[in-house]
Design goal:
One of its GO terms (molecular function) is metal ion binding. It holds the Pfam family Fer4_10. Residues 1-9 and 429-443 have low confidence and may be disordered. The chain has 443 residues and is mainly α. The chain is built from 18 helices and two strands.
Length: 443
């Protein structure tokens, strides 16, 4: 154990207990999944979820606290789980397989769905389904790995606030609140998601459903989504950049910043990857714009204008982008391609926010080139594949559409070269070779 560790007790017993509980919990989930007819899935599966949760905390606490802040990333490229080794591939295959079963073979998850039945009845007053199971697992992943991130970056107030924020929005706005709405027989609605990420929220069918089944509340939901998409998003992005959503609110970003944090260094930093990024994400954004317009035109013409063409656009987007890209690839490939594959290459919301950030926002990351020692930590741990070191070496501000403002580049910089700031637009592209002394901050 490191001499400067604030964790004064030998952490080995806690780690051992934690790993034991995780192993027993995974066994319980396996039994619930394949042996639910022989043993109650509520006992085996519910107990498994509880054991994995407690075991994870018992393992995370000593594992993070026994390391000083400067050593938190030690071994990232040597450990099989985080360096595309055999363990990483196994994790990736399991995650990918789970998403495939979730989307296209949900009956295979019947036992696991039954395991969360009591929670579903308590929270929503209705039977569980595969999506409630997914929401439960998703929220637990954000919360448990959120504890991991809080301890890992415990010296940085920005990281503590950011991580607490995504944990709050995932638990409250994306899990508890939608369940409460169903409990009250109101339409299920996720207030932290809106168009174009939650693309169907502005589709005519969804708008009609919310008005008919939700009454005044349904109208407010439509109003909320429209205001967030077209008014609040430009205003907030102007002041804070895309980080206000991608790193503080969004559930996709929340999972990436917590459960995906151990894999952030795996993002491709090559120029070729950047070309693919531009070639994919903006056409996807354009596709959902065209699909939304076609659906509304077809609704207005009562189907006479395009027939089923607009519906075909919607189904195509839902399958290839909504399921395959954002789910199967976006999360399943964390251990292979990094934690922001979906956010970087496919998310239409990220494209929308990125354009606003690049051309209209006050947000930027300033650099002090005179202090840069070219260690490359900033580029290595940039989850969006930005070569931050190139900007730092030249003392240029980083104003990139893809930057989500996670702040890790500043966190891992040993010289305090980088600073996240919101300033006037004047001179945004002029560089920052002449940095005022008050602009230099060591985090």
């Amino acid at each position: 154990m490191h001499a400067s560790s604030p964790f004064v007790l030998d952490s080995s017993p806690l780690k051992a207990i934690g790993l034991t509980l995780i192993g027993l919990g995974l066994l319980g989930l396996l039994v619930a999944g394949v042996g639910y007819q022989a043993l109650s899935p509520v006992i085996s599966g519910g107990g498994g979820i509880l054991a994995v949760s407690i075991g994870s905390i018992l393992y995370i606490l000593p594992a993070r606290l026994e390391l000083p802040v400067a050593a938190q990333n030690n071994g990232a490229w040597q450990q099989s789980a985080t360096a595309r080794g055999a363990v990483g591939w196994v994790i990736g295959i399991v995650l990918t397989g789970f998403y495939i079963l979730l989307y296209w073979f949900p009956d295979t998850l019947h036992g696991l769905v039954k395991a969360v039945e009591p929670l579903s009845q308590l929270l929503r007053n209705r039977p569980a389904d595969q999506w409630f199971l997914y929401g439960t697992f998703y929220t637990l992943a954000v919360l448990l790995m959120g504890v991991h991130a809080l301890l890992k970056y415990r010296n940085n107030p920005y990281q503590l606030i950011k991580t607490t924020s995504v944990m709050f929005f995932q638990l409250g706005f994306a899990f508890l609140l939608p369940g409460l709405l169903l409990f009250l027989n109101e339409p299920e609605f996720y207030f932290s998601y809106f168009w174009p990420l939650k693309y169907d929220y502005l589709f005519p069918s969804t708008v009609g459903y919310l008005v008919e089944s939700g009454g005044g509340l349904g109208v407010f939901m439509i109003f909320w989504g429209a205001v967030l998409s077209f008014l609040a998003t430009p205003v907030l992005t102007y002041f804070y950049g895309k980080r206000w959503y991608c790193s503080w609110v969004c559930g996709c970003g929340g999972l990436a910043e917590t459960a995906g944090d151990p894999y952030r260094h795996l993002s491709d930093k090559s120029r070729n990857a950047w070309r693919w990024e531009v070639a994919i994400i903006y056409p996807i954004f354009g596709f959902i714009i065209i699909t939304t317009i076609l659906l509304w035109l077809n609704s207005w013409s009562e189907g006479k204008l395009f027939g089923d063409l607009s519906g075909g656009f919607s189904r195509t987007y839902g399958f290839f982008i909504g399921a395959m890209f954002s789910g199967v690839i976006g999360v399943g490939f964390y251990p292979i391609l990094g934690n922001r594959v979906w956010c970087r290459f496919g998310c239409p919301m990220a494209a929308y926010l990125g354009l606003l950030q690049k051309y209209f926002s006050r947000f930027r990351i300033t650099t002090n080139g005179a202090q840069c020692i070219s260690c490359g930590n900033c580029s290595t741990y940039c989850e969006m594949g930005i070569d931050v070191r190139w900007y730092a070496q030249q003392g240029k501000p980083i104003i990139r559409a893809s930057c989500v403002g996670c702040g890790i580049c500043a966190q891992v910089c040993p010289r305090g070269v980088l600073k996240l700031e919101n300033g006037p637009q004047e001179g945004r592209y002029a560089g920052s070779a002449l940095i005022r002394s008050e602009d230099i901050r060591i985090l």
